[in-house]
Amino acid sequence: MTRYVIIGNSAAAVGCVEGIRQVDREGPITIISDEPHHTYSRPLISYLLEGKTDRVRMQYRGADFYEKNGVTPLLGKRAASIDPEKKSVTLTSGEKIPYDKLLVAAGSRPFLPPTEGQETVTKAFTFMNLDSALALEKALTPASRVLIVGAGLIGLKCAEGIAHRVNTITVVDMADRILPSILDEAGSTLVQEHLEEKGLTFHLSDCVAKFEPDAAILKSGQRIPFDILVMAVGVRPNTSLIADAGGLVRRGVVTDEFCRTSLSDVYAAGDCAQSFDITTGQERVLALLPNAYMQGETAGIHMAGGGGKPYDRAIPMNAIGFFGLHIITAGSYQGEDVRMQQGKTYKRLFYQDDRLKGYILIGNVERAGIYTSLIREQTPLSSIDFDLICEKPQLMAFSKRARAKALSGAAG
Protein backbone atom coordinates (compact mmCIF):
# COMPACT_ATOMS: atom_id res chain seq x y z
CA MET A 1 0.00 0.00 0.00
CA THR A 2 1.49 3.32 -1.10
CA ARG A 3 2.08 5.94 1.61
CA TYR A 4 1.51 9.49 0.40
CA VAL A 5 2.82 12.60 2.15
CA ILE A 6 1.93 16.17 1.16
CA ILE A 7 3.73 19.24 2.52
CA GLY A 8 1.22 22.06 2.28
CA ASN A 9 -2.53 22.42 2.81
CA SER A 10 -3.82 24.78 0.14
CA ALA A 11 -5.08 24.41 -3.44
CA ALA A 12 -2.22 22.24 -4.74
CA ALA A 13 -2.50 19.92 -1.74
CA VAL A 14 -6.26 19.55 -2.21
CA GLY A 15 -5.76 18.89 -5.92
CA CYS A 16 -3.21 16.21 -5.04
CA VAL A 17 -5.53 14.47 -2.57
CA GLU A 18 -8.36 14.45 -5.07
CA GLY A 19 -6.01 13.29 -7.83
CA ILE A 20 -4.74 10.40 -5.71
CA ARG A 21 -8.26 9.33 -4.82
CA GLN A 22 -9.25 9.17 -8.49
CA VAL A 23 -6.83 6.24 -8.74
CA ASP A 24 -6.09 4.89 -5.25
CA ARG A 25 -8.89 4.76 -2.67
CA GLU A 26 -6.86 3.03 0.04
CA GLY A 27 -3.32 4.41 0.34
CA PRO A 28 -2.89 6.56 3.50
CA ILE A 29 -2.34 10.28 2.92
CA THR A 30 -0.64 12.59 5.42
CA ILE A 31 -0.80 16.38 5.08
CA ILE A 32 1.84 18.46 6.90
CA SER A 33 1.09 22.16 7.31
CA ASP A 34 2.68 24.82 9.48
CA GLU A 35 -0.70 26.57 9.64
CA PRO A 36 -3.13 25.22 12.26
CA HIS A 37 -6.23 25.75 10.11
CA HIS A 38 -8.45 23.57 7.97
CA THR A 39 -7.71 24.13 4.27
CA TYR A 40 -9.00 27.55 3.22
CA SER A 41 -9.08 29.78 0.15
CA ARG A 42 -6.38 32.45 0.47
CA PRO A 43 -8.02 34.84 -2.03
CA LEU A 44 -10.95 35.15 0.39
CA ILE A 45 -8.86 36.65 3.21
CA SER A 46 -9.72 40.20 2.19
CA TYR A 47 -13.43 39.32 2.03
CA LEU A 48 -13.21 37.93 5.56
CA LEU A 49 -11.93 41.29 6.84
CA GLU A 50 -14.49 43.09 4.72
CA GLY A 51 -17.27 41.05 6.34
CA LYS A 52 -18.39 39.44 3.07
CA THR A 53 -17.53 35.91 4.19
CA ASP A 54 -16.76 33.99 7.37
CA ARG A 55 -14.34 31.30 8.51
CA VAL A 56 -16.66 28.47 7.50
CA ARG A 57 -17.51 29.78 4.03
CA MET A 58 -13.86 30.50 3.21
CA GLN A 59 -12.92 26.84 3.69
CA TYR A 60 -11.57 25.46 0.40
CA ARG A 61 -13.25 22.13 1.08
CA GLY A 62 -15.92 21.00 3.56
CA ALA A 63 -15.27 20.16 7.19
CA ASP A 64 -15.26 16.42 6.39
CA PHE A 65 -12.62 16.72 3.64
CA TYR A 66 -9.81 14.99 5.54
CA GLU A 67 -11.94 12.20 6.97
CA LYS A 68 -13.78 11.56 3.70
CA ASN A 69 -10.49 11.21 1.80
CA GLY A 70 -8.59 9.19 4.38
CA VAL A 71 -6.19 12.03 5.18
CA THR A 72 -4.26 12.41 8.42
CA PRO A 73 -3.73 16.18 8.85
CA LEU A 74 -0.68 17.23 10.86
CA LEU A 75 -1.65 20.88 11.27
CA GLY A 76 0.57 23.40 13.02
CA LYS A 77 3.60 21.22 12.17
CA ARG A 78 6.53 22.41 10.07
CA ALA A 79 8.60 20.24 7.75
CA ALA A 80 12.29 20.88 8.39
CA SER A 81 13.93 18.63 5.80
CA ILE A 82 13.49 15.86 3.26
CA ASP A 83 15.69 12.76 3.04
CA PRO A 84 15.10 11.43 -0.49
CA GLU A 85 17.29 8.35 0.09
CA LYS A 86 15.53 7.22 3.26
CA LYS A 87 12.22 8.58 1.96
CA SER A 88 11.26 10.53 5.04
CA VAL A 89 10.27 14.05 6.05
CA THR A 90 11.67 15.37 9.31
CA LEU A 91 9.56 17.87 11.25
CA THR A 92 11.00 20.68 13.35
CA SER A 93 9.95 18.60 16.38
CA GLY A 94 12.33 15.86 15.25
CA GLU A 95 9.55 13.46 14.27
CA LYS A 96 10.12 11.59 11.02
CA ILE A 97 7.29 10.90 8.58
CA PRO A 98 8.03 8.11 6.07
CA TYR A 99 6.68 8.25 2.52
CA ASP A 100 6.61 6.31 -0.72
CA LYS A 101 5.45 9.32 -2.75
CA LEU A 102 5.90 12.92 -1.65
CA LEU A 103 4.39 16.19 -2.89
CA VAL A 104 5.98 19.49 -1.86
CA ALA A 105 3.33 22.22 -2.09
CA ALA A 106 5.02 24.62 0.31
CA GLY A 107 3.73 27.83 -1.29
CA SER A 108 5.52 31.14 -0.97
CA ARG A 109 6.51 33.66 1.68
CA PRO A 110 6.43 37.48 1.85
CA PHE A 111 9.45 39.32 0.53
CA LEU A 112 10.54 41.91 3.08
CA PRO A 113 13.31 44.16 1.72
CA PRO A 114 15.63 45.45 4.44
CA THR A 115 14.77 49.07 5.21
CA GLU A 116 16.37 51.35 7.77
CA GLY A 117 14.29 51.71 10.92
CA GLN A 118 11.84 48.93 10.12
CA GLU A 119 12.54 47.29 13.49
CA THR A 120 11.16 50.38 15.25
CA VAL A 121 7.67 49.88 13.77
CA THR A 122 5.58 48.06 16.38
CA LYS A 123 2.44 47.47 14.30
CA ALA A 124 3.80 45.91 11.11
CA PHE A 125 2.01 43.12 9.24
CA THR A 126 1.99 41.09 6.06
CA PHE A 127 -1.14 39.86 4.27
CA MET A 128 -0.20 36.41 3.02
CA ASN A 129 -2.22 34.03 5.16
CA LEU A 130 -5.11 33.81 7.60
CA ASP A 131 -3.05 34.35 10.75
CA SER A 132 -1.42 37.51 9.38
CA ALA A 133 -4.83 38.87 8.35
CA LEU A 134 -6.36 38.12 11.76
CA ALA A 135 -3.43 39.81 13.51
CA LEU A 136 -3.93 42.88 11.30
CA GLU A 137 -7.65 42.87 12.04
CA LYS A 138 -7.03 43.06 15.79
CA ALA A 139 -4.89 46.16 15.35
CA LEU A 140 -7.39 48.12 13.25
CA THR A 141 -9.40 51.01 14.69
CA PRO A 142 -11.65 53.61 13.02
CA ALA A 143 -8.87 56.16 13.59
CA SER A 144 -6.09 54.04 12.05
CA ARG A 145 -3.88 55.55 9.37
CA VAL A 146 -2.66 52.59 7.32
CA LEU A 147 0.40 52.58 5.09
CA ILE A 148 0.60 49.77 2.55
CA VAL A 149 3.95 49.27 0.83
CA GLY A 150 3.14 47.58 -2.47
CA ALA A 151 0.51 48.34 -5.11
CA GLY A 152 0.20 44.80 -6.43
CA LEU A 153 -2.59 42.29 -5.98
CA ILE A 154 -1.89 41.54 -2.30
CA GLY A 155 -1.54 45.16 -1.22
CA LEU A 156 -4.67 46.36 -3.02
CA LYS A 157 -6.82 43.43 -1.86
CA CYS A 158 -5.70 44.26 1.67
CA ALA A 159 -6.75 47.87 1.11
CA GLU A 160 -10.17 46.79 -0.10
CA GLY A 161 -10.65 44.47 2.86
CA ILE A 162 -9.91 47.08 5.52
CA ALA A 163 -11.04 50.34 3.87
CA HIS A 164 -14.33 50.52 5.74
CA ARG A 165 -12.62 49.96 9.10
CA VAL A 166 -9.91 52.64 9.09
CA ASN A 167 -9.43 56.39 8.72
CA THR A 168 -6.99 56.57 5.80
CA ILE A 169 -5.04 54.24 3.50
CA THR A 170 -1.89 55.32 1.69
CA VAL A 171 -0.20 53.06 -0.83
CA VAL A 172 3.45 53.44 -1.85
CA ASP A 173 5.12 51.61 -4.75
CA MET A 174 8.31 52.13 -6.68
CA ALA A 175 6.55 51.17 -9.93
CA ASP A 176 5.06 53.94 -12.04
CA ARG A 177 1.58 52.38 -11.94
CA ILE A 178 -0.55 50.06 -9.83
CA LEU A 179 -0.87 46.34 -10.63
CA PRO A 180 2.09 46.53 -13.01
CA SER A 181 2.37 42.74 -13.34
CA ILE A 182 -1.11 42.32 -14.84
CA LEU A 183 -2.27 45.67 -16.30
CA ASP A 184 -1.06 47.97 -19.03
CA GLU A 185 -0.82 51.73 -18.51
CA ALA A 186 -4.40 52.51 -19.60
CA GLY A 187 -5.91 49.74 -17.50
CA SER A 188 -3.85 50.69 -14.48
CA THR A 189 -4.95 54.33 -14.75
CA LEU A 190 -8.60 53.31 -14.92
CA VAL A 191 -8.36 51.10 -11.83
CA GLN A 192 -6.31 53.65 -9.89
CA GLU A 193 -8.91 56.35 -10.50
CA HIS A 194 -11.60 53.95 -9.26
CA LEU A 195 -9.61 53.24 -6.09
CA GLU A 196 -8.96 56.93 -5.49
CA GLU A 197 -12.72 57.50 -5.67
CA LYS A 198 -12.94 55.03 -2.74
CA GLY A 199 -10.51 57.09 -0.67
CA LEU A 200 -7.12 55.51 -1.34
CA THR A 201 -4.06 57.74 -1.80
CA PHE A 202 -1.12 56.64 -3.98
CA HIS A 203 2.55 57.57 -4.06
CA LEU A 204 3.99 55.88 -7.15
CA SER A 205 7.49 55.92 -8.64
CA ASP A 206 8.65 56.26 -5.04
CA CYS A 207 9.77 54.01 -2.20
CA VAL A 208 10.44 54.05 1.53
CA ALA A 209 13.97 55.23 2.30
CA LYS A 210 13.60 54.72 6.04
CA PHE A 211 11.02 54.13 8.74
CA GLU A 212 10.39 56.02 11.93
CA PRO A 213 8.19 54.42 14.62
CA ASP A 214 5.10 56.19 13.26
CA ALA A 215 6.10 57.47 9.82
CA ALA A 216 7.80 56.56 6.56
CA ILE A 217 10.30 58.84 4.87
CA LEU A 218 10.09 58.34 1.13
CA LYS A 219 12.98 58.59 -1.29
CA SER A 220 11.32 61.74 -2.66
CA GLY A 221 11.57 63.29 0.81
CA GLN A 222 7.87 63.09 1.64
CA ARG A 223 6.95 62.01 5.16
CA ILE A 224 3.94 59.67 5.46
CA PRO A 225 2.60 59.30 9.02
CA PHE A 226 0.94 56.00 9.88
CA ASP A 227 -0.30 53.89 12.78
CA ILE A 228 -0.27 50.53 10.98
CA LEU A 229 2.16 49.26 8.35
CA VAL A 230 1.38 46.49 5.85
CA MET A 231 4.28 45.13 3.80
CA ALA A 232 3.04 43.74 0.48
CA VAL A 233 6.09 44.17 -1.73
CA GLY A 234 6.04 40.67 -3.19
CA VAL A 235 6.58 36.99 -2.53
CA ARG A 236 9.30 34.38 -2.91
CA PRO A 237 8.69 30.66 -3.61
CA ASN A 238 9.48 28.31 -0.73
CA THR A 239 12.03 26.13 -2.51
CA SER A 240 14.50 25.36 0.30
CA LEU A 241 13.14 21.88 1.15
CA ILE A 242 13.81 20.69 -2.40
CA ALA A 243 17.06 22.62 -2.81
CA ASP A 244 18.49 21.37 0.51
CA ALA A 245 17.64 17.80 -0.52
CA GLY A 246 19.64 18.23 -3.72
CA GLY A 247 16.74 18.88 -6.09
CA LEU A 248 16.90 21.20 -9.08
CA VAL A 249 15.65 24.71 -8.32
CA ARG A 250 15.72 27.84 -10.42
CA ARG A 251 13.23 30.63 -9.71
CA GLY A 252 10.94 27.86 -8.44
CA VAL A 253 11.23 24.10 -8.16
CA VAL A 254 11.84 22.60 -11.60
CA THR A 255 9.29 19.94 -12.59
CA ASP A 256 8.21 18.03 -15.69
CA GLU A 257 4.73 17.81 -17.21
CA PHE A 258 3.66 15.37 -14.47
CA CYS A 259 5.03 17.67 -11.72
CA ARG A 260 7.94 15.36 -10.93
CA THR A 261 11.06 17.00 -9.51
CA SER A 262 14.62 15.82 -10.13
CA LEU A 263 14.35 13.80 -6.88
CA SER A 264 13.00 10.26 -7.17
CA ASP A 265 9.32 9.95 -6.07
CA VAL A 266 9.21 13.64 -5.08
CA TYR A 267 6.76 15.99 -6.80
CA ALA A 268 6.15 19.73 -6.48
CA ALA A 269 3.12 21.91 -7.20
CA GLY A 270 1.66 25.33 -6.51
CA ASP A 271 3.41 28.59 -5.77
CA CYS A 272 6.78 26.94 -5.05
CA ALA A 273 6.99 25.25 -8.46
CA GLN A 274 7.64 26.44 -11.99
CA SER A 275 5.17 25.93 -14.83
CA PHE A 276 5.59 25.94 -18.59
CA ASP A 277 3.70 29.00 -19.85
CA ILE A 278 2.26 28.04 -23.24
CA THR A 279 1.82 31.70 -24.23
CA THR A 280 5.53 32.53 -23.94
CA GLY A 281 7.16 29.12 -24.22
CA GLN A 282 9.04 29.78 -20.98
CA GLU A 283 9.24 28.20 -17.54
CA ARG A 284 7.77 30.58 -14.96
CA VAL A 285 6.33 30.59 -11.47
CA LEU A 286 2.59 31.09 -11.99
CA ALA A 287 1.34 31.68 -8.46
CA LEU A 288 -2.35 31.27 -9.22
CA LEU A 289 -4.94 29.15 -7.42
CA PRO A 290 -6.41 27.37 -10.50
CA ASN A 291 -2.95 26.45 -11.76
CA ALA A 292 -1.95 25.23 -8.30
CA TYR A 293 -4.97 22.93 -8.14
CA MET A 294 -4.33 21.54 -11.64
CA GLN A 295 -0.66 20.92 -10.83
CA GLY A 296 -1.61 19.16 -7.61
CA GLU A 297 -4.22 17.01 -9.33
CA THR A 298 -1.77 16.00 -12.05
CA ALA A 299 0.84 15.12 -9.41
CA GLY A 300 -1.67 13.12 -7.36
CA ILE A 301 -2.86 11.05 -10.32
CA HIS A 302 0.71 10.27 -11.33
CA MET A 303 1.81 9.53 -7.74
CA ALA A 304 -0.96 6.94 -7.53
CA GLY A 305 0.11 5.29 -10.77
CA GLY A 306 -2.66 6.73 -12.89
CA GLY A 307 -0.36 7.71 -15.73
CA GLY A 308 -1.23 10.43 -18.13
CA LYS A 309 -2.91 13.67 -17.31
CA PRO A 310 -0.06 16.06 -18.07
CA TYR A 311 -0.09 19.59 -16.74
CA ASP A 312 0.57 21.27 -20.07
CA ARG A 313 -1.97 24.09 -20.46
CA ALA A 314 -0.62 26.59 -17.95
CA ILE A 315 -1.19 30.28 -18.58
CA PRO A 316 -0.97 33.33 -16.33
CA MET A 317 -4.49 34.33 -15.32
CA ASN A 318 -6.05 36.60 -12.71
CA ALA A 319 -9.70 37.15 -11.86
CA ILE A 320 -10.08 39.84 -9.24
CA GLY A 321 -12.23 42.78 -8.23
CA PHE A 322 -11.81 46.00 -6.27
CA PHE A 323 -14.84 47.77 -4.81
CA GLY A 324 -17.15 46.29 -7.44
CA LEU A 325 -14.87 46.82 -10.42
CA HIS A 326 -14.08 43.42 -11.96
CA ILE A 327 -10.83 42.52 -13.71
CA ILE A 328 -9.80 39.40 -15.60
CA THR A 329 -6.43 39.07 -17.32
CA ALA A 330 -4.79 36.09 -18.98
CA GLY A 331 -1.85 35.08 -21.10
CA SER A 332 1.03 37.27 -22.23
CA TYR A 333 0.92 40.74 -23.74
CA GLN A 334 2.84 40.38 -26.98
CA GLY A 335 2.22 40.89 -30.67
CA GLU A 336 -0.46 43.10 -32.19
CA ASP A 337 -3.45 44.27 -30.20
CA VAL A 338 -7.07 45.36 -30.36
CA ARG A 339 -8.15 47.95 -27.79
CA MET A 340 -11.58 49.24 -26.74
CA GLN A 341 -12.55 51.54 -23.86
CA GLN A 342 -15.77 53.16 -22.74
CA GLY A 343 -16.03 54.64 -19.25
CA LYS A 344 -14.92 52.00 -16.75
CA THR A 345 -15.06 49.23 -19.33
CA TYR A 346 -11.75 48.34 -20.96
CA LYS A 347 -10.71 45.52 -23.27
CA ARG A 348 -7.38 44.76 -24.87
CA LEU A 349 -6.64 41.59 -26.84
CA PHE A 350 -3.13 40.54 -27.90
CA TYR A 351 -2.52 38.23 -30.86
CA GLN A 352 0.46 36.87 -32.74
CA ASP A 353 1.12 34.10 -35.30
CA ASP A 354 -2.62 33.49 -35.81
CA ARG A 355 -3.12 32.84 -32.09
CA LEU A 356 -4.66 34.82 -29.24
CA LYS A 357 -1.85 35.38 -26.75
CA GLY A 358 -3.49 37.33 -23.94
CA TYR A 359 -6.16 39.76 -22.85
CA ILE A 360 -7.10 42.42 -20.30
CA LEU A 361 -10.76 42.90 -19.38
CA ILE A 362 -11.93 45.55 -16.90
CA GLY A 363 -15.55 46.24 -16.02
CA ASN A 364 -17.46 43.92 -18.35
CA VAL A 365 -15.82 40.51 -17.94
CA GLU A 366 -18.68 38.37 -19.22
CA ARG A 367 -17.69 35.43 -21.41
CA ALA A 368 -14.01 35.87 -20.61
CA GLY A 369 -13.90 32.08 -20.68
CA ILE A 370 -14.15 32.13 -24.49
CA TYR A 371 -10.96 34.18 -24.71
CA THR A 372 -9.27 31.93 -22.16
CA SER A 373 -10.24 28.83 -24.15
CA LEU A 374 -8.81 30.33 -27.34
CA ILE A 375 -5.48 30.83 -25.54
CA ARG A 376 -5.37 27.42 -23.82
CA GLU A 377 -6.42 25.49 -26.92
CA GLN A 378 -4.21 27.66 -29.18
CA THR A 379 -7.06 27.96 -31.65
CA PRO A 380 -6.06 29.41 -35.06
CA LEU A 381 -7.73 32.82 -35.31
CA SER A 382 -8.15 32.26 -39.04
CA SER A 383 -10.61 29.48 -38.20
CA ILE A 384 -13.04 31.83 -36.41
CA ASP A 385 -14.67 35.21 -36.94
CA PHE A 386 -12.02 37.15 -35.01
CA ASP A 387 -13.62 40.55 -35.66
CA LEU A 388 -16.82 39.31 -34.02
CA ILE A 389 -14.86 37.74 -31.14
CA CYS A 390 -13.10 41.06 -30.54
CA GLU A 391 -16.38 42.94 -30.37
CA LYS A 392 -18.46 40.36 -28.53
CA PRO A 393 -17.21 36.88 -27.56
CA GLN A 394 -19.82 34.27 -28.52
CA LEU A 395 -20.00 30.77 -29.97
CA MET A 396 -21.48 32.07 -33.24
CA ALA A 397 -18.01 33.32 -34.11
CA PHE A 398 -16.81 29.71 -34.35
CA SER A 399 -17.34 27.24 -37.16
CA LYS A 400 -20.27 24.81 -36.92
CA ARG A 401 -17.88 21.95 -36.12
CA ALA A 402 -16.11 23.96 -33.42
CA ARG A 403 -19.45 25.00 -31.89
CA ALA A 404 -20.56 21.36 -31.75
CA LYS A 405 -17.31 20.38 -30.06
CA ALA A 406 -17.58 23.20 -27.52
CA LEU A 407 -21.22 22.40 -26.74
CA SER A 408 -20.53 18.67 -26.36
CA GLY A 409 -17.65 19.50 -24.04
CA ALA A 410 -19.91 21.72 -21.95
CA ALA A 411 -22.52 18.96 -21.79
CA GLY A 412 -19.88 16.47 -20.71
UniProtKB/TrEMBL annotation:
InterPro entries according to UniProt: FAD-bd_OxRdtase, FAD/NAD-bd_sf, FAD/NAD-binding_dom, FAD/NAD-linked_Rdtase_dimer_sf, Rubredoxin_C
Stretches assigned to the FAD/NAD(P)-binding domain: 3-296
Domain NADH-rubredoxin oxidoreductase C-terminal: 316-379
TM helices/strands, residue ranges: none
Source taxon at top rank: Bacteria
Keywords: FAD, Flavoprotein
Pfam families reported for this sequence: Pyr_redox_2 (PF07992), Rubredoxin_C (PF18267)
Matching SUPFAM superfamilies: FAD/NAD(P)-binding domain (SSF51905)
Cofactor: FAD
Entry annotated with the keyword Protein transport: no
PANTHER family xrefs: NITRITE REDUCTASE [NAD(P)H] (PTHR43429:SF3), PYRIDINE NUCLEOTIDE-DISULFIDE OXIDOREDUCTASE DOMAIN-CONTAINING (PTHR43429)
Protein name per the record: FAD-dependent oxidoreductase
Origin species: Solibaculum intestinale
